[in-house]
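JOB MANIFEST
job_type = single_chain_structure
chain_count = 1
residues = 259
[input]
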Amino acid sequence: MLESIYVVRHGFRSNWVVDPKTGQYANNIRSPTGIDGDPALASYGVQQSKELARELIRIYPPIEMIYSSPFYRCLQTIEPFVQGVDREVGQPRSSTVNLEPGLGEWYGVARFNHPIPASYAVLKDEHFSWVDNETSHGVIPNPNGESIEELHDRVARVLHEIIEYEDKRPQQPRALLICTHAATMIAIGRALTGNMPADPSEEDFRCGTCSISEFNRRIPLRLRDDWRGWQDGNGVGGGWDVILNGDCSHLSNGEERTW
């Protein structure tokens, strides 16, 4: 049974711009996937990702499962940890890496379509051969964007599905890692703890680039059959307590680009 969930935000990325009238996205630097609005990490973000990997490799019990947003910058962020490409990080981990669309970027409601990440086949065959699976929990962000309420419900639903699935697997992993985006990371903290502020703009969960949040499962378990009703302190998957909140102590320059 899952005991701990670690959540990280991707590293410092290259910028994009969008024309609010036409919905046309443009990257300052061409994306490796060729998708406008799907930028890679900046060189500074790559360095952050290596510092993050050195921290993740010290976690005990070790991370056995990884769920990542399918956007390029998230997969690039966890690559040093998964691959052990930096000798200082250590040997590659035996973690299973799953693409999860339900953990993707949040975009506000618009009349046009927002960026959609590359397919599993493209990402695995052309960019990240170490990706193992694309999960099929059926939670897909609306391409026309979401309200704040819809974001939180999307996140609560996909977390419920992930936790329930992992709890039922024979392997019973104890620690799981999620790599995602700023607004999604905030929503994850709220959905796990069940603490939704009256004002959604309240600064409750930190989300700097390559920050780490840790959540430990509450004991005794009070599991619910459905993801709905996660608010009022309930939380999905029986509820979780926050142990680390957007910690950046492992990064040379500390917290950056939080919301």
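[summary]
The helical segments are 43-56, 72-83, 120-126, 148-168, 182-193.
The radius of gyration is 17 Å.
exit_status = 0
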